[in-house]
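Hi! If you just cloned this repository, the fastest way to understand the data is to look at a raw example. We've pasted two of them here, unedited. The first protein comes first, obviously.
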Amino acid sequence: MNQRIGVIGIGAMGWPMAACLLKNAYQVSVFDNRPEQVKNFVQEFGGTPSHSLQELAELSDVVITILPNSQIVEAVIFGKDGIAPYLKKGTTVIEMTSGAPAVTIDLSERLSKLGVTLFDAPVSGGVPRAITGELSIMAGGVDADIEQAMPILKSMGTVIKTGAIGTGHAMKALNNLVSAGGFLIGIEALLIGSKFGIDPETMVDILNVSSGMNNSTQKKFKQYVLSQKYNSGFSLSLMAKDLGIALDMAHHDDITSPFATLCQEIWSQASVDLGPQADHTALAIYSEKLAGSEVMK
């Protein structure tokens, strides 16, 4: 607990994850490009506000990045005013963004020349499980590095080691590919069934005790779609980005993936149509437009 942890990115996921670290008695400093976000977090949970990336880097033994994409992570580490020059030798960077494996590998190699370790540890479970500290954490990197950081990771969730550096981010993208496919086909089933005259809530109940059950039928359809709240806390653009990473992996290794390709195209077009900040569960609205029908009549 004597390790000083700096968290970069106090957004929808970083906020509750940093809070979990504080609840587990870690010394935590936080930075976000929105100073008001940092101020509000410290007022609610405590911790130390960092007014610059340099300040956070100099305060930290471990740095956690939880940001929208790998390009932003690279800028935070090696860009103008980035943390790299201020990290002490022996510092560990835990990259918890849903990032691109190739960029992660490159960042790890560049930091290792400075005596700094980086491994990837993206998460799944959304905001509700981030709040309770029950995320699924996919850790890719040198086993000893992950083990050293294991108490920190376990403060936020359950850890599954995926292999070499970059495999955590690869697995996160593939997980979201499966999740996105399940959501999309489930919504289309609700549209077809609703048009036929079956009550949507009844359909969800039946799917959840049958072989069509998936994460979306269990945790998204009633909560965010049938309620028409569309406020899960994970945006369409972020889902589309993760699907793009999965497809890049397929293309790199010459894997033909027709359903994954179609799935990615639909999610990406929905992001354009509804706006990148729309909640990912609002894909249902886009599916309704394509179908010319509505789930909830």
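Ok, and the second one:
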Amino acid sequence: MNRMKKQTALLILLALTVGMLTGASAAKLDRFEYVIASGTVAAAAFENVTAPFSGTLLPFDWEAGDRVSEGETLFRTRTLTLRAPAAGTVTAVFAGEGENAEGAMSRFGALAAIEHEYGYLINASAGSAYNKSKNRELHIGETLYFRSTAEGREEGSGTVISVTGENYTVEIREGSFNTRETLSLYRTDDYAAADKVGSGTVIRRDPLTVTGGGRILKVYVKPGDTVAADEPMFEMMSADAEPESGDGIASPCDGVLTAVAVQPGQQVWKGALLCRVSRTDRLEVVAELDEMDLGKIQIGSVCPVVLDMDEDTVMQGRVTEISALGFARQNAAWFRVHLALEGAADLPLGASASVYLPK
């Protein structure tokens, strides 16, 4: 900031349109002797943006000096997606958007339930396989064919999903069978005795459950929906989020970012400072006065203000604060004075200004 300049017998005869920034009519400044104090444009108010809940910040490219608008998303937090563990039909959803998952988990043990797409299994053994070593060696993923030993000989097919020694489990893909029904299993669909790989009993498959913790941001399914394996069912965020919270954190006002306190990918806790938005609808000039000139103004005094970037426009600055603590410079004490720019908005913060004090 330039040192305050004393100028006497200064002729300021400017044809100005004060109304551009102050709403006043055009006016001319008469001949005065002025003391000119150097200052800079600053925001008279700011808003701190804090983390509304704990989480990890997604990538962003904001930096100090960027302009932002009220409601504009500044940050997003990483969410956790709970997905369907297997294909099937959703039979129950125990929690809704905005709810804390803890409640549903404590009451039902799950957030949702799914009936398998293929709801029946065969618990089988190769103990009754045809006497060939290859018929006692089952492989996960291979297709088997089976039929009932009861009257009617219902036939079907399925896939081996687990093998433990001579015991194995088959997921029934085709065919309709009753639980506890006994089936003979084969490697071919002509059911030749030489291809028999054992026998087993039909059981009903246990339903699947979807579990998780935190606050539920979104629910993607409802009872009766069919889902594919790995299809999203719930979007979760931190448990300390409020029910109305979303994954985006918005600017509370129009302004300029004067501080960004976090980095992309950083984990933050609820209440942590993320950034500061200096408001551009409430501007002031902060000037520095020599102690000898403090008597020329008081709280409420109105002084002409001219920006170095626009010397043809005069604004009005009303003194709102005079620092009670000075600082030393060149064997003198100096004091900071704040002047609200009446009617001014959206000026560049940090712009140089001159404040005209009556002599």
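That's it. A detail worth noticing about the second one: The chain has a mean pLDDT of 89.
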